[in-house]
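[job 0412] stage=fold_complex status=start
inputs:
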Amino acid sequence: MHEATKHEVAIARRIEKNAEAERKKIISGAKKEGRRLVRDAKKGTKAERERIIDRKLRDLQYRKETEISAITADAKKGLMNVKSRMVDGAFSQATKELLELPRREYRDFLSALILRGASSLDTKEVVVTPYEGDDGIFVPSYLAGIEKELKKQKSKVNLKLSQEKITTPGVVLASGDGKAALDMTIEELFRDAREELSAEVEKILFGR
Amino acid sequence: MKKEEQMEELQDFLERLRVLHEKDREGSEEVEEARRKAIAILKNTEEELADVYLSLGEGVKREVEKEKASVEKEIAAFKKKTEKELSKKTKALERVAEKNMNEAVEFILTKLGARNA
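[job 0412] stage=fold_complex status=done
writing structure:
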């Protein structure tokens, strides 16, 4: 067999060289592409990470602010409840003291109530319905005395004692024709007073 | 040239051609092998990418959990402080109210006409 010619050797070397170059190109291309993908992914995930964390932190901040405002609101409500409880206590104490007034003072209080109520009813005859426990107070001379006071105030109202009785302390006044009535029971008076005087009572209790 | 010599020359030529062809085939196999390696490299890249994304999730979770714990601690501390202050203020209010209770009761009774009747 003849040895390879120079030309054949050159072709064989060219084939080897081309194959080697192609092999290197493929491998280095794959490595380069792999590195690029990982680098881009890291870069992308860094931005994504910051974006997600930023959003989560904002959510947490919002949650913190909401909970802190709720706690603050609850505390304010708690203080208001304390004040309200103390105001209620003052009204309860006042009710108790009113019902425990000495007989004469209690009777004068009722007179003042009837005087005030009868004048405001704007009618010639006022029917007075007393509390069942105040029988001893509502003698004929009692209402006559009040009528006398009314006359002094230029009022010509006649008072008439009802045969009916109410079951809670105080009185109920009604016009003679029954068209208007005024609930002046202690319970009702205190209900109105609670609405009207709470702010002032609160000021007295907790300082102006 | 004799016929025998011609035949020998032809066989020699074919042999040389076969050698070159063999070289070319070997070169193609090397390239094919390189392609397989490239695929393996990219497969590894896929795994590396999965790790990158996994660590993203874990990193975010870790950081958020840390911040969440800190916020919860802060809220709990604020709540405790507020409750303590509320208790203190409540006691102070009750003390003042008790001191002024009689004045308030007298005010109510006066307004209702039970004191100046």
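[job 0412] summary: Chain A is about 70% helix and 10% strand.
[job 0412] exit 0
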